[in-house]
Amino acid sequence: MGQRSLICLPLLLLLLGPLGVLQSRAMARPTPTPPLRAPQSLALLRARDQCSAHLSHAQRMRMDRMQYENLPHVQRYIHCFWSRLQLWHDGTGFDALGIVHSFGGPRRLNVEQALPAINGCNAKARRVSHGVSDWCYRAFACVLKTPVGDWYRRHMADVINGNA
Per its UniProt record, what CDD domains does this chain match (predicted)? Predict the structure, then answer.
């Protein structure tokens, strides 16, 4: 009886070989899991959601498309967003070093370019602004005109689209 089963086993494997291989490969394949978001990306999404709660659908879509016209609701949104991230302080403006570190540090941003751009926009906007929300908006709009702004747009698009 033992010899018969030993002879039948190779025959069975020969007959079911390809099917057995396919089944074992299919069973061994792990089910795909959605990619985990980075903590910074989650913080950006939370701040975006909290600060856009008072916006209409059309206004929120404009924010998501990064169309930031100088309007009161846009100023409030920008101030809320950066304040929630703790990267804007009403007494001092943008925390340039905090922004660099929060968004990946020197490996993602050129620090020699980012710090002067953010700090320069901060100082320039402070001189011409009327109130904290206006100052925050003007500093942000200024930064958007620099290479840091280009990076910010790409990064936020990746976060919104689930790629970061």
Answer: PBP_GOBP
